[in-house]
């Protein structure tokens, strides 16, 4: 196996781990415990947002920052992925028109953004 394909496979696995950790953080959010499962069942586009942000954008950012120190990689990947996800979530919130649902999703995004730094940092640190 070529060296570059090993790196890509490793980072794809790390991006998927970060996405799963972020979705788990969304599910344990106190506001979403009450009606969160209903929101995800009615709006499956939210799962697509996470796939786009964590798997694709995370992999691209890791490739661009692969020669940097692990702290710079973690910060860069975390910042860009969460900015892309925030833009998607804000656009989606503007279209639904329901304030309480939008507040719950935005709160879940903040919890996810904080908790997703852990697996991203772990993968960047162990990759070097």
Outline the secondary-structure elements.
Elements: H1 3-27, H2 30-42, H3 45-64, H4 70-96, H5 99-115, H6 117-127
Helix pairs in contact: 1-3, 1-5, 1-6, 2-5, 3-4, 4-5, 4-6
Kindly describe this structure.
The chain is an all-alpha fold and 128 residues long. Helices cover 88% and strands 0% of the residues. It is built from six helices and no strands. The longest helix has 27 residues, at 70-96.
Can you summarize this structure?
With 128 residues, the protein is an all-alpha fold.
The share of residues in helices is over 70%
CA-based gyration radius: 15 Å
Please report which band the strand proportion falls in: under 5%, 5-15%, 15-25%, 25-35%, 35-45% or over 45%. Answer: under 5%
Total beta strand runs: 0
Q: Report on the biggest sheet.
A: none
SSE-based structural type? mainly alpha
Terminal residue distance: 18 Å
Low-confidence stretches: none
Indicate the overall shape.
Answer: elongated
Spell the H/E element sequence: HHHHHH
Overall average pLDDT: 75
Helix count from the secondary structure assignment: 6
């Amino acid at each position: 196996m070529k060296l570059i394909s090993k790196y890509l496979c490793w980072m794809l696995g790390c991006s998927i781990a970060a996405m799963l950790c972020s979705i788990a953080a969304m599910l344990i959010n106190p506001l979403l415990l009450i009606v969160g499962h209903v929101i995800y069942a009615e709006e499956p586009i939210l799962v697509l947002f996470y796939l786009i942000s964590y798997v694709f954008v995370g992999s691209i950012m890791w490739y661009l920052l692969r020669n940097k120190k692990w702290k710079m990689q973690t910060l860069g990947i975390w910042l860009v992925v969460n900015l892309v996800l925030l833009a998607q979530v804000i656009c989606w919130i503007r279209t639904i028109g329901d304030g309480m649902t939008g507040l719950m999703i935005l709160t879940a995004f903040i919890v996810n953004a904080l908790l997703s730094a852990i697996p991203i940092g772990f993968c960047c640190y162990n990759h070097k």
